[in-house]
Write a sequence for this structure.
């Protein structure tokens, strides 16, 4: 049985994650390296654990979370689909059962907001974990005068917490520095992602809540 730890320890996976992030550095994107994919894997697993999903489903969500951005090594465009194909080759090589492979690659192929949909619980958990990873440490541009809106939104986030209340809601609670980024700036760039989070929460029979500086926005 292929485990999340097997994926983390795999040298090919390490290379793809490293090289994918190098491409995004060149393109000026925020951090998408081991910290991001590790956090997404952990939060996706925690969401499904809290909701009482079987341990193996939780493990598949963590695997999908760790592999979800490897397609960036090919190109940022359609990286979810290319990442799903790469994950198929990796997991097939490692001997994972086809039904489990299908669950993982479906989640990966449906995580980018341009084409995403929470088609199953693993996909929903991956979407929620990925889209709620907002933190200042993701910003790699150290020249504030050249910040774009992506930099400002992430840099402004001083605290970020994801909370799950079984049979009720999943909440992203942010504390942002409004001198760096206005709340409306956050909405300009994240509204599509937050709508997707709402759909993902509904797939898990939850409501999605966004709280910024103590105020419930969604």
């Amino acid at each position: 049985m292929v485990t999340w730890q097997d994926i983390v320890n795999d040298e090919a996976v390490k290379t793809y994650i490293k090289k994918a992030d190098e491409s995004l550095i060149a393109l000026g994107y925020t951090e998408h390296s081991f910290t991001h994919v590790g956090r997404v894997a952990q939060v996706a697993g925690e969401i499904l654990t809290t909701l009482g999903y079987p341990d193996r489903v939780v493990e598949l969500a963590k695997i999908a979370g760790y592999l979800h951005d490897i397609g960036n090594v090919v190109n940022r465009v359609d990286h979810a689909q290319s990442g799903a194909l790469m994950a198929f080759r990796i997991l097939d090589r490692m001997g994972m059962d086809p039904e489990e492979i299908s669950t993982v690659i479906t989640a990966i192929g449906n995580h980018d907001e341009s084409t995403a949909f929470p088609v199953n619980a693993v996909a929903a958990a991956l979407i929620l974990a990925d889209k709620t990873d907002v933190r200042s440490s993701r910003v790699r541009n150290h020249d504030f005068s050249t910040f774009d809106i992506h930099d400002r939104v992430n840099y402004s986030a001083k605290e970020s917490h994801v909370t799950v209340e079984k049979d009720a809601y999943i909440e992203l609670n942010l504390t942002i520095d409004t001198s760096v980024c206005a709340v409306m700036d956050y909405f300009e760039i994240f509204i599509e992602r937050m709508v997707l989070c709402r759909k993902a929460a509904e797939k898990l029979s939850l409501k999605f809540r966004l709280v910024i500086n103590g105020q419930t926005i969604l």
Summary: The mean pLDDT is 94. The CA atoms of residues 74 and 82 lie 7 Å apart. The first strand starts at residue 157 and ends at 165.
